[in-house]
């Protein structure tokens, strides 16, 4: 049985991902052993720049490397590529670095390929017909044991593996190098027509095309300020829900909803808001609504077009980093 470690070479965190995946393979992955006593596997490296290709190969935590040149920021496209790989190559499990992007891609792949998924894994044991994973549960007070049977097995590793060292390989073997940047015939991203430009002035809530809204889940004025800075980095207009404004964590002129401004952006990202009806009225005309909140029962999550079940402040800052990286590399060109 052969596993695949997935390395996102299009992000600025490739080195940290490689170290974490390497440590997990060395110390957290058991069973399914190769002839040399170690798990048999390969690293699938997604990259976009030829200049970075050699460095990324050297970072790979396995000897065998499969290079895939793919569009930046298109997790849907990567999930499609990995789904084909799971069927054609029979690879399982797939290992993803910890964090929102790795968790989302693991979940997307499991859904597309009718497999199974565990997130934030502390360890995994490969068996002939199943994968056994351990992960923290009940706010880390207990460790749960989970069994995956439907293949492909998709596992995102726990963030605690970050920076714990990896596996050094004096020589890597490139199995293949393919170019998957041609997206003809691929369903477009809902964000394809979004211009990543500087946000309008603070008073342009009603005219915004890209809106980020902070809710009470930000937890403090500092949390709201961090969301506001992330919004500015992405070129988004910043707004808040009524509880945030009433706590004096942001000015009242940033208020979205019945008591404030009604908006109709192309994209609205709601961070840590429960989703009261009065607030929902303020964003219901948005073209696409994404919610970030750990509570899967929150109205904002249930009514959104897409949701990320995680800490909102952390996720929005990572999204801002992705967008800033795309700007810096000219990977995203504003349309005329």
Summarize the structure.
It is built from 9 helices and 16 strands. The protein is an alpha/beta fold.
How would you describe this structure to a colleague?
- The model is unreliable at 191-195, 197-202 and 331-336 (pLDDT under 50).
- The chain is an alpha/beta fold and 336 residues long.
- α3 (75-89) packs across α4 (100-112).
- A seven-stranded parallel sheet has the order 6-10-5-1-3-4-11, sandwiched between helices. Strands 13-12-14-15-16 form a five-stranded parallel sheet.
- It has nine helices and 16 strands.
Q: Sum up the overall morphology in one term.
A: globular
Assign the structural class, choosing from mainly alpha, mainly beta, alpha/beta, alpha+beta, or little secondary structure: alpha/beta
- The CATH homologous superfamily of the largest domain corresponds to HUPs
Named CATH topology of the largest domain = Rossmann fold
CATH architecture of the largest domain, please?
Answer: 3-Layer(aba) Sandwich
Radius of gyration: 21 Å
Give, in spatial order, the strands making up the sheet with the most strands.
Answer: 6-10-5-1-3-4-11
DSSP strand content: 15-25%
State the major sheet: 7 strands, parallel
The CATH class of the largest domain, by name, is: Alpha Beta
Order of helices and strands: EHEEHEHEHEEEEEEEHEHEHEHEH
For the termini, the CA-CA separation is 50 Å
Tally the helices: 9
Whole-number tally of structural domains? 2
Average residue pLDDT: 85
- Proportion in helices: 25-40%
- Which residues sit in consecutive blocks of at least 5 with pLDDT less than 50? 191-195, 197-202, 331-336
**Counted beta strands:** 16
């Amino acid at each position: 049985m052969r596993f695949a470690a997935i390395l996102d070479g299009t992000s600025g965190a490739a080195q940290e991902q490689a170290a974490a995946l390497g440590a997990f393979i060395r110390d957290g992955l058991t069973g399914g052993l190769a002839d040399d006593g170690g798990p048999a596997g390969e690293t699938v490296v997604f990259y976009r720049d030829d200049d970075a290709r050699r460095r990324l190969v050297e970072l790979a935590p396995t000897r065998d490397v499969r290079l895939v040149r793919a569009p930046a920021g298109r997790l849907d496209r990567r999930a499609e590529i990995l789904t084909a790989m799971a069927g054609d190559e029979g690879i399982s499990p797939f290992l993803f670095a910890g964090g929102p992007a790795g968790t989302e891609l693991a979940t997307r792949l499991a859904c597309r390929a009718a497999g199974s998924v565990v997130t934030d894994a502390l360890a995994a044991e490969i068996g002939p017909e199943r994968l056994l994973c351990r992960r923290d549960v009940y706010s880390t007070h207990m460790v749960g044991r989970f069994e995956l049977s439907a293949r492909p097995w998709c596992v995102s590793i726990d963030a605690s593996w970050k920076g714990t060292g990896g596996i050094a390989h004096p020589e890597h073997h490139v199995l293949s190098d393919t170019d998957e940047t041609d997206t003809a015939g691929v369903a477009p991203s809902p964000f394809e027509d979004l211009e990543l430009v500087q946000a309008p002035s603070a008073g342009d809530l009603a005219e915004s095309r890209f809106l980020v809204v902070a809710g009470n889940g930000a937890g403090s004025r500092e949390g709201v300020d961090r969301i506001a800075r992330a919004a500015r980095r992405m070129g988004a207009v910043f707004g808040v829900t009524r509880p945030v404004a009433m706590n004096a964590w942001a000015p009242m002129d940033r208020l979205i909803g019945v008591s404030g401004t009604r908006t109709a952006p192309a994209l609205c990202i709601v961070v840590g808001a429960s989703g009261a009806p009065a607030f929902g009225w303020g964003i219901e005309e948005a073209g696409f609504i994404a919610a970030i909140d750990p509570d899967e029962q929150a109205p904002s999550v249930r009514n959104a077009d897409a949701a990320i079940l995680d800490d909102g402040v952390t996720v929005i800052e990572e999204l801002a980093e992705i967008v800033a990286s795309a700007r810096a590399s000219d990977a995203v060109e504003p349309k005329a």
